[in-house]
Amino acid sequence: MVPRPQIHRPRSRTYALVVRALGPVALLGLWWGASAAGLLTPDVLASPAQVLDAVGELWGNGQLTDALSTSLTRSGLGLLIGLTAGLTLGITTGFTRLGDELLDSSLQTLRTIPFLSLVPLFMVWFGINETAKILLIAVATTFPMYVSASGGVRGTDRKLVEAMRSFGLGRLAIVRQVVLPGALPSLLAGLRLSMTLSVIALIAAEEINATEGIGYLMSQAQSYARTDILAVCILVYGLLGLIADVLVRGLERVLMPWRTAGPGGGTR
User: Fold this and answer.
1) Cβ neighbours for 110, distance < 8 A, ≥ 6 positions apart
2) Digit-coded pLDDT (tens) for 88-106
3) What is the C-alpha to C-alpha distance for residues 91 and 155, in angstroms, rounded to an integer?
4) Using alpha carbons only, how large is the chain's radius of gyration in Å?
5) Torsional sign, CA 98, 103, 105, 108
6) Closest CA to 151 of 85, 93, 88, 82
7) Contact between residue 115 and residue 143 where contact means Cβ atoms under 8 Å apart
8) What tens digit of pLDDT does each residue of 187-202 get?
9) DSSP state of 267
């Protein structure tokens, strides 16, 4: 028998985008149809048209833009602190035996503690100001980056590291020129998880007596039974998570273009 190699035809980006959009469009259609048929009443969930009206209302009076600015600042600062801490600790434990012996067991123990359980403790330590909210997000995003960075660094080819040492490279140069590029896939995976968790932690953080932000809008809408504004806030949180994932995918395409090519040269 003559083997017939399977030929993979490259897909256009337009086709890929259309396929990806089918799921959200179908959900939107079901939502609209259930609202139009009366299966979803406004006191249960507002219709898509009512949600669009609520977006216009919140955007027009400036509430949505102010809340977005506050929430993005909280999430961004917490994510930056968490990524820095996780990357530093991951490189330390993955690259040095002493760091692994001193830190890894403690960090693995702390990693198993749900960050939501820290909310009451953070309120006692830091009060109900911005510090508690930002640090809660930082804690939530530290450990995914730590685990990914530590695993990626440990997976670096030791022979390559020894070869670079024989050429006279110091520790910092080896980390910068050998270890980090080799661990790049793991680092980007950790970045994706951390960015997703930063949105989840943001929701929890904004429950700590917030007076501004998307969480504050939600609490106000809950008080007045405004399901349209509640739906807007939920969709905003979802869009933030989606945008974070798209940004990491774009970063992967820039830093690791070979991973976008599937078998036969087609794009994934």
Assistant:
1) 143
2) 999 888 888 888 888 888 8
3) 12
4) 23
5) negative
6) 93
7) no
8) 888 998 999 889 888 8
9) B
